[in-house]
User: Which sequence fits this backbone?
């Protein structure tokens, strides 16, 4: 199982936001996480839509973690950003000829759910507990 790039960036934004109490600009986040600004802005917008980030426009604006984000389930967040994807695509452009009697798809679906279930009890605050918090604070202030 591999997370898509947006999910990876989203987790990093949440972790950095949890380590900092002040607002972060899109440019600061992009520099700190070594991510293209345009792509990061799209992820920030999605996180705001999910209620995990608050944004403030204008001079002195930026983004910060919402109150709910600190205790949000990482598993739920990853499910949201990953969408309804399966580990294998049995019905893609060329349907698999083995699908009528195959048990692999079901086994992989159970494995994927076990992956998410492992992440369910973990919160953003859990990911930023010391000593990780100190590392994140260094990254967020120096831009890497």
Assistant:
């Amino acid at each position: 199982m591999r997370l898509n790039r947006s999910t990876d960036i989203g987790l990093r934004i949440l972790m950095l936001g949890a380590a900092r109490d002040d607002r972060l600009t899109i440019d600061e986040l992009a520099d700190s996480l070594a991510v293209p600004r345009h792509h990061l802005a799209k992820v920030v917008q999605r996180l705001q839509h999910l209620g995990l980030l608050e944004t403030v426009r204008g001079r002195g604006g930026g983004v910060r973690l919402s109150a709910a984000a600190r205790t949000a389930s990482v598993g739920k967040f990853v499910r949201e950003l990953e969408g309804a994807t399966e580990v294998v695509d049995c019905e893609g452009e060329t349907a698999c000829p083995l699908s009528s009697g195959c048990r692999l798809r079901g086994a992989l679906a159970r494995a994927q759910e076990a992956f998410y279930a492992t992440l369910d009890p973990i919160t953003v605050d859990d990911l930023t507990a010391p000593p990780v918090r100190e590392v994140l604070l260094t990254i967020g202030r120096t831009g890497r």
Q: What stands out?
A: DSSP finds seven helices and two strands in the chain. The helical segments are 5-19, 26-33, 37-49, 74-82, 104-119, 124-127, 132-142. The mean pLDDT is 85.
